[in-house]
Specification:
The chain is of the alpha+beta class and about 250 residues long. Helix content is about 20%, strand content about 30%. The protein is built from 5 helices and 12 strands. It is globular, with a radius of gyration of 18 Å.
């Protein structure tokens, strides 16, 4: 477990692919329990340790997870997440855009300066809009180009940071919070996330991960009022390092 930020009210952890944030029917030990154990040992706390789960990441996704260490922080963070006041930026490695997907990209709506959020460089951003339906039995979402019964509108912004021979690195900002939204929408646009077999990737990653990273979290501290900008380290996979290096050279 890797702690990337900690104070009296918050703790932010770099989740590894394969870890679950909160307990589920698998019975596997969740990240929340590991964090509690860490806090109990570090601060020699007797009895139960308080820890509030305010959001989750899919099991194969890595990156930043924010936990609350106090009930005051938990209540305020829940409100902030519900009202869209916590800005999360994701990085994804996706297949290079094929011709059909490129048409989707070029046709996507440009993002106006009035709509932008500082968490994402919007100079070359694109807006993706779909209507998603969810199949509970398959644990999978499906994207539609228009509203259908039972669907929910889903929007995200993205821009490409670097292109390699087979893959590209992109930055993504969610504008809505839907089940498997980034995975489903990018796949629908012809850009499945590397390793994500459920959404159209051709092969799995050796470690079972998908190449989606919760890279950055920006929020106003729920107690102190200080602005926090926290960034996750890149996965050790060489492709992440290579594409990030290309992005830095641009």
């Amino acid at each position: 477990m890797e702690v990337v930020y900690e104070d009296n009210h918050l703790i932010v952890v770099n989740k590894q692919s394969g870890e679950i944030v909160q307990g589920d029917k698998t019975g596997d030990r969740p990240l929340s329990e590991l964090v509690k154990e860490y806090l109990k040992e570090k601060y020699q706390k007797p009895g139960n340790v308080f820890l509030g789960v305010v959001h989750r990441l899919d099991r194969p996704v890595s990156g930043l997870v924010v936990f609350a260490r106090t009930s005051k922080a938990l209540a305020r963070l829940n409100k902030m997440f519900a009202e869209g006041q916590v800005h999360k930026t994701y990085w994804a490695i996706v297949s290079n855009v094929e011709r059909s997907a490129n048409n989707v990209e070029l046709a996507a709506t440009e993002v106006s300066n009035a709509e932008t959020n500082t968490a994402l460089n919007t100079q070359n951003s694109r807006l993706l809009t779909h209507w998603l339906t969810r199949n509970e039995q398959q644990n999978k979402s499906y994207a539609h180009d228009h509203e259908v019964p039972g669907s929910k509108k889903a929007q995200l912004r993205y821009h490409v940071l670097a292109r390699g021979n087979r893959y590209q690195l992109m930055e993504v900002e969610l504008l809505t919070g839907r089940h498997h939204q980034i995975r489903c929408q990018l796949a629908a646009a012809g850009m499945p996330i590397r390793g994500d077999l459920k959404y159209g990737a051709r092969r799995s990653n050796p470690d079972g991960s998908i190449s989606l990273l919760s890279r950055r979290v920006e929020l106003v501290h729920p107690v102190t009022g200080k602005t926090l900008l926290i960034e996750a380290p890149l996965p050790h996979d060489p492709l992440w390092q290579q594409l990030a290096a290309l992005a830095n050279d641009r």
